[in-house]
Amino acid sequence: MVTKKNPAPVTVKIGAETYTMHLGIAALIYLEKAIGVPVAELKDVLDKPKLEHVRELVAALLVEHHPQSRIADITLGLSAALGRVANVTADPAEQARLANRLIDAIGLEATMDIVGKAMEASPHFFADGTEAAAA
């Protein structure tokens, strides 16, 4: 079995905000649902992505650390007050808005570089984009 040496998330700083992007299971599930193809077929879609796919991929990379939801702040605040961990489901429209803002702030070329770094760092994909097989 091949394992990643550095499966660390990728961070992007825009102004005072730092965004953590990670291609973990949560991101893959979000991406499958958003694009409508199984994870095994994602490489084919991402080889020549539409802009919509780039946005959905960025939204997916942000979903674990930055889930966007209209109720997220209320839920997280209440969870902290009760000493419990919140399970916030990202709202696809809100997640897309965050991805749009990030892409517009850094540009498409830089976005694609960051996406590549996130895929390289993912424990689920090899540097060439192929899916890691379980041993």
What is the CA-CA span between the terminal residues? 5 Å
| Poorly predicted parts | none
Rg over C-alpha atoms, rounded to the nearest angstrom: 15 Å
* Strand line-up in the sheet with most strands: 1-2
What percent of the residues sit in helical stretches (DSSP H or I)? 40-55%
Strand proportion: 5-15%
Q: Compute the number of strand runs.
A: 2
For the biggest sheet, the summary is: 2 strands, antiparallel
How many helices in DSSP terms? 6
- Compressed to H and E, one letter per element, the order equals EEHHHHHH
- For the residues shown, what is the average pLDDT? 78
Shape: globular
The helix/strand class is: mainly alpha
Describe the structure.
By secondary structure, the protein is mainly alpha-helical. The protein has helices at 25-35, 42-47, 51-63, 72-82, 92-106, 108-121, and strands at residues 10-14, 17-21. The chain has a two-stranded antiparallel sheet with strand order 1-2. Helix 1 (25-35) packs antiparallel against helix 3 and helix 3 crosses helix 5. It is globular, with a radius of gyration of 15 Å. The mean pLDDT is 78.
